[in-house]
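Journal club prep — side note

Before the paper discussion, L.F. wants everyone to see what a predicted structure for a comparable chain looks like in token form. Sequence:
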Amino acid sequence: GAVLVYQINQANGTLTAASGSPFVSSLAAPGNATSNVTVDPSDLFAFATNQFVPSLAGFNFNPPVNSGNLTELTPWETPTGANPVWITVDPLDRFVYVSNNTDGTISGWALGAGGALTPIFDSPFALPVSGTPGAIAIDPSGRFLYVTDGAHSQVVGYTIDRSAGATAGALTQMTAPFPTDPGGGPFAVSIDPSGHFLYVGNSFLGTVSMFTTVPTTGFLTAVGAGTVSYAGAVGVNAIAIE
């Protein structure tokens, strides 16, 4: 039930615990299963999901920012859907999204001054029937959001309303989900920094599904045979791209 913070030695990469770490992420800690953490693009706020509460916790970085010391936002805990497993902030620093694995939805908030979160119009947004959302990836332009659906072995794509109106941040599902390896139970998803390629880790198979993106629509097209295999134990739980 906590967020651990470390300072990185810029010379050799070693980690040293920051002052005050670990930081409790829920009033229900311990046992709340803090599952995912992210920092917004402006490096002002940190957010973490609590699977068993369920909620997200928000923190400020105390000055100096490079100290890594965190202070709870007000309110500290924001309710989510059931079993929140992933949280992300869009690259334009406008919206926060959480995938709720058990109830098959994505919750969304507008990110305001001081880290204030305001529910997005029509949030939460449903996946296809009986979907189980996992990790979320947003393209670098902030136009398209993708979430894995482990129950149906697919990626569900949405367009993000980037207007300044009342529906800002709302998600509109693309016409059809994009299939991954059958029976693969996809969870991890990541987009390369150029926004041209998307990769999905299949938890039940030793494979990674590969796609190219259409810049104008966000639609995905499988690369070659669609997957690449790797040696060793099955289960791709996270993907990082340099």
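L.F.'s comment for the group: The chain is about 0% helix and 50% strand. Keep this in mind when we get to the figures.
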